[in-house]
Every structure is written in structure tokens, then in C-alpha cells.
Write a structure and sequence with these properties.
One of its GO terms (molecular function) is hydrolase activity. By secondary structure, this protein is an alpha/beta fold. The protein has a domain of 105 residues: 3-Layer(aba) Sandwich (Rossmann fold). It has 8 helices and 5 strands, in the order αααααβααβαβββ.
Length: 171
């Protein structure tokens, strides 16, 4: 709705529930948006929509990255799938120096773990990212690549790196 290019005053949840969804632009938002209709009807990864223009370029970029990257994500973020796919597409050389962190957060990095007990839901991803970039850019230390995931319900994390798989209880 925020990408419509004009103010949309429709209810967000009503827009999410609208059926058939391809018509929500005209029926609730007031204008036909051809780009939106292509986006919501292009449901197959092999569709031309996802493999040409901007989307095609975005799919190619990770494999061309040569510098270390830091990807911070949350299990409850609607972009998690894209972040995983981005990390997966990095070259092996790039992964050796990159960090991929997945925590117990939503898109806004708010804790989103209902019904689970734990003491380590805090999100310090901004500080982790800062520290990672500080080591890389200021201290000029080459980072060690890792995938660091928070284990919901266990209040622990698993780290996959060149030393292998490490599971540690957080304290």
C-alpha cells in the first residue's frame, strides 16, 4: 500500500484479506496498478517477472559480491526467505568472510517469541553489526564467516563456521 505511488486510505487488514487479491488495487485502493498485479500474479520463480529487469538483477548480485557481508534477520521477518536465498547465492569465497545472523525477531527487530520461555530474546543486532563492521573497516581484521541462529524454545544458538557446528547455551 505504501508503494502505490499515492496515498492509500484503505484498512491494511481488510486489504490483506481482500479476495480476489489481484483486484484489491482498484476495489479498495482506488486505482489499477499494473505493476502490482504482475507482482501478485507472478507466483512462480521462473516467471519472466522475477528474472528480468530489477528482479533479475537482484537475483544475480549476490553471486558477484566479493567483499564480506553481514546479514541480520529474524525468524519472524517476512523477508527471511529472501535473506536466506541471498546468503545461499553468495560465492563460497564470500561466505568464508560473511556473517548471517537469525534471531527471534520480526521485520522491525522486535522480539516476536510468544509462548516460549527464555532470557535471551534481546536484540542487539545493531551493536553486533556495528562491531562486525568496526572490526572489518577500522581494525582491518578479516572476519570469519558464520551462520548464527537463535534456537527458539531452547534459548540457545547454533553457529556454523569453519570450526564446524557449535551449539551453545546463552548465559
Amino acid at each position: 500500500m505504501e508503494n502505490a505511488g499515492y496515498p492509500v486510505n484503505a484498512d491494511y487488514l481488510a486489504s490483506c484479506r481482500f479476495q480476489p487479491h489481484v483486484e484489491v488495487d482498484e476495489k479498495l485502493w482506488g486505482k489499477r496498478l499494473d505493476w502490482y498485479r504482475k507482482w501478485v500474479t507472478g507466483t512462480n520463480e521462473s516467471d519472466a517477472y522475477w528474472n528480468t529487469g530489477l528482479w533479475g538483477l537482484l537475483k544475480e548480485i549476490p553471486s558477484r559480491v566479493k567483499v564480506p557481508v553481514y546479514i541480520g534477520e529474524g525468524w519472524y521477518d517476512h523477508h527471511l526467505g529472501s535473506a536466506i536465498e541471498t546468503y545461499r547465492r553468495l560465492s563460497d569465497e564470500c561466505k568464508k568472510k560473511s556473517r548471517f545472523l537469525i534471531g527471534a525477531w520480526d521485520h522491525n527487530f522486535n522480539v516476536a517469541v510468544e509462548g516460549h520461555q527464555g532470557e535471551h530474546f534481546e536484540n542487539d543486532d545493531v551493536l553486533r553489526a556495528f562491531y562486525w563492521f568496526y572490526q572489518l573497516l577500522v581494525e582491518e581484521k578479516e572476519p570469519q564467516g558464520s551462520v548464527d541462529t537463535y534456537i527458539i524454545g531452547d534459548d540457545s544458538r547454533e553457529v556454523f563456521c569453519s570450526r564446524g557446528r557449535i551449539t551453545e547455551k546463552m548465559s
